[in-house]
Amino acid sequence: MRVPLGSYGEGLFTAIRQTRSDLLVTARAAYRGGDFETSYASFSRAGAVGPLTLDDLDAMATSAGRLGHGREAMRMGELVFLRLVRTDPNAAAGKAVELGSAWLSNGEVAVGEAWIRRARGLLADASQVAVSARLAHLEAVLTALGDDADLAAERSAVLREMALEPGTSVMGQAYHRLGDIRRRRGDVDGAFAAYARALESGVVPQPGEALLRCALGDVDTARAQVRAAIATSDSRELPRLLRGGVEIALAAGEVDEAEGYLRELESAYGDDTVLRGAVLVRRGRYREALTVLRAALREPRLRQSAAARAEVHAWIERAYAGLLTASA
């Protein structure tokens, strides 16, 4: 027997439909505005009610990645790829390149290589210049890291450090990142050797080499090196150099200099709560520093880096120590 829907049923259906529609409007607006947390949450709720369009699924994947949900972002990216591969091979190739880069950035070499091979097999349109350039760069990275013994031994770690974008010498960038890895491990000679190889390949290994000299107590040389690098850098490298400048200036006790670098960094690239908290600690503004540093621990980028979280906790400990000393 057919049961009439009735006014209650119609109202319920309309409410569900409107709710999903509202969620999608909210998600899309948040995505366009860079509010990835709201975007991801709203797309997730809308997707629980019904399937997302290709564009919405892609936007949700991007939002997940920006929030530090790397695996979830790649899973959704793979769903986007599966839809694209049936209708638009060139767009699918672009998505495969994106996924290959993401897997390589996680140090997952075999999976990344598989996606790069898929991209190469799909890319047939010579007009896809940007995709072709990025794909060729990733292939060059894998070749370089496979053929060089030093880099091959640290291939996964180096890939996690590299930007994986065209524009710089592959070997130079790889050796620069290898130097950073060795520096953080305390391998001084190995780090200097890697930085020297980076320089030979046309990449100035800063601020890594300056940070290494600073850690060894040669603060004046470190300050001079990072200052010179900042003066001649391009926009891609400037944020990294300014962050290094802040760290070195703080180590030298030059808080005004550190704050100057930080202002330049934040005016062009947005807030850096970790370094802002560090400067506040050095200024003796411990309570403010604790507020800023605790907020930093909630940032998506710190979820993916144990080293970055450890750095924040170290500054938090200094802030607490400062409070205890001040109250004694």
From TrEMBL:
It comes from the Bacteria. InterPro entries: TPR-like_helical_dom_sf. This is Tetratricopeptide repeat protein. It comes from Mycolicibacterium aromaticivorans JS19b1 = JCM 16368.
